[in-house]
Design brief:
CATH topology: Maltoporin, Chain A
Distance between the termini: 52 Å
CATH class: Mainly Beta
Number of domains: 1
């Protein structure tokens, strides 16, 4: 067996800067990122995996080059009562990639011939390439008057090759203002409230995260009855354009007792409009979906932060920082309202997209428990009736919670005792759900209703030891049944509480100043443990792990044995010179 993966990456950058005056300068820069990977595999005819095809081999290559050019003109000027900062410029970015692959099978045993050119049959061969470009014009102005009145405005224009020529450009302005009330004469001097600032911002940003060729209808290779040819690959919308996010933020920053206690209160609201989504179309077109700008998602909520110096004495100091965010998320408009989605490979629905519901809303049959008399699993039907597994239908499924928490945050405590320092950092999520596909698989004491028997010979969770066994048993696990006749993997039995409190980081350090050294000014030795412990009712490995990897928020919170976060131990030191 040979399985070799190679990779190379090269990063390079160069810049030039010219200063016209003390206030005005120009900077241009070029940077490149080259990445290549190769995969070389060979499985001998003597291996179990390849014996049926007399050995097989695979070779593939991938190359990607990204270059970025930035040209920025900067103006900085301080006046008697104010400060002005302004920038203007443009950037260009191009990414090109290409890949090849070839596979073959049929190698003589013991011949030593392992190259694909020696294969009796080439089973696959292909090559492809893609490119993407982004051109941006940008400008920004910051103005500060007397340290009391703050103003900032930006305008960014982006052109993406992922959109048609007539809708390639997007203009995204934003502005923010700030008023430091505590600097006003009428505010006076206060021992309690020593600093107060109001701020607000509103702006637009764009999103272009779709495939590189969704803006054109193109063809791809195909075979039919042994004949090679081309077939239409997709249907393009000629009006496809940028997805827009409109964000509002209003906040108050405050300080008490000269900084002994400080914090902020913020209200935020953002609306993503013109969602880049797959819209279902009539099958008579030859396609099932088309990428369009349809739909809207709204996020809004409050965020609070508090920082405090709890104790400050010679030789001892204790600081605390706390933050918490309350968020409400919902679909405001959709191209496919009520669309069921699957986070699982078999395509069974696990989530739903519905106007008024949150992104990542689960879709499951309400589970009511076990009938203590006969061990039947009980469910609630759409009509409200109590039914068992033999009569329940997937049409009885309903909204079953969401992957987004109601609120989340963190608490950090820092202690300094002489030359010792300690940090305990925690984080929490409250109100989110997790679809535990691990449990749905290993609590299953049979397999599909289609008659498969493979799960009968697989292992089960220890939870099945608490299944119903005789009349009068009170349990949440139904009786065992042949070929899964008393079970439904798509019920709320497997939608669990995902709330948690995690001890994220614990650090202990010791700092000393070498008295005799001319070169070392300070030395700190420390030990850190990351992911020390998690307090949670979730029965899976890790309440923060999602098998979707966060790549698709529409099906977030789905856990099918994704690798949990590791506990990490570190010892190190910091030197000061």
């Amino acid at each position: 067996i040979r399985a070799i993966t190679t990779g190379n990456r090269l990063l390079a950058s160069v810049f030039a800067e010219y200063k016209f005056t003390d206030a005005l300068k120009f900077r241009t820069s070029w940077s490149t990122d080259y990445n290549s990977m190769g995969d070389d595999q060979f499985f001998s005819p003597l291996t179990t995996d390849a014996s049926a095809v007399s050995g097989r081999a695979l070779k593939s290559t991938f190359e990607q080059l990204t270059w970025l050019n930035e040209n920025i003109l900067t103006y900085n000027r301080k006046f008697q009562r104010s400060t002005l900062n302004a920038i203007a410029g443009y950037t260009m970015q191009v990414t090109r990639s290409q890949q090849t692959n070839i596979a073959g099978q049929g190698f003589p045993i013991g011949s030593g011939l392992e190259n694909i050119s020696s294969a009796a049959l080439i089973t696959a061969a292909g090559a492809s390439g893609t490119s993407f470009g982004l051109l941006s014009y940008l400008s920004r102005v910051n103005y500060d008057l007397d340290g009391k009145y703050l103003f900032s405005a930006t305008v960014r224009t982006d052109a993406s090759s992922r959109f048609p020529r007539n809708s390639r450009y997007g203009v995204f302005p934003s502005a923010s203002i700030g008023w430091r009330i505590s600097q006003e004469a009428f505010f006076g001097t206060h021992k309690t409230l020593t600093d107060l600032k109001l701020r607000a911002s509103y702006g637009l940003t764009g999103d272009q995260e779709i495939g590189n060729f969704q803006n054109v209808s193109y063809w791809s290779p195909a075979r039919y009855q042994g004949v090679s040819g081309l077939k239409p690959r997709n249907l393009a919308d000629p009006n496809l354009t940028w997805q827009t996010n409109r964000a509002l933020n209003v906040g108050v920053d405050w300080e008490l007792y000269g900084g002994r206690i400080s914090g902020s209160i913020e209200y935020f609201k953002s609306n993503k409009t013109g969602l880049l989504s797959n819209d279902f179309i009539a099958g008579t077109t030859g396609f099932s979906t088309i990428t369009r700008n349809k739909g809207e998602i709204e996020n809004k909520g409050w965020e609070f932060t508090i920082n405090s110096v709890n104790i400050s004495k010679p030789g001892f100091r204790w600081n605390t920082s706390f933050n918490i965010s309350f968020i409400k998320n919902q679909y405001k408009a959709l191209s496919n309202d009520g669309l069921l989605l699957s986070a699982y490979t078999d395509g069974s629905p696990t989530h739903v997209m519905k106007v008024g519901q949150a992104v990542g809303t689960f879709w499951a049959i309400p589970y009511l428990g076990v009938d203590p008399q006969n061990g039947d699993a009980l469910f609630r039907s759409r009509s409200g009736a109590v039914v068992n597994a033999e009569t329940v239908q997937f049409d009885d499924a309903t909204f079953a919670g969401k992957a987004i928490p109601d609120y989340y945050g963190g608490i950090n405590n820092t202690f300094t005792v002489g030359k010792f320092d300690f940090l305990v950092a925690t984080q929490f999520n409250v109100g989110n759900k997790i679809y535990n596909q691990i449990k749905a698989t290993y609590v299953n004491m049979g397999w599909s209703n289609e008659g498969g028997l493979d799960q009968i010979y697989a292992n089960n969770s220890v939870e099945v030891l608490n299944r119903w066994k005789k009349p009068g048993d009170v349990t949440n696990i139904p009786r065992a049944s042949f070929i899964n006749q008393n079970y439904s993997p798509y019920s709320t039995l497997f939608v669990e509480n995902g709330s948690f409190l995690r001890i994220r980081t614990v650090t202990a350090g010791y700092t000393l100043k070498p008295a005799q050294s001319k070169w070392v000014s300070s030395l700190r030795i420390y030990a850190t443990v990351q992911n020390l412990y998690v307090f949670t009712k979730y029965s899976g490995f890790d309440p923060e792990v999602s098998s979707t990897g966060g790549s698709d928020p529409r099906v977030a919170g789905f856990d099918y044995a994704a690798y949990p976060q590791a506990r990490t131990y570190m010892i190190g030191f910091n030197l000061g010179f």
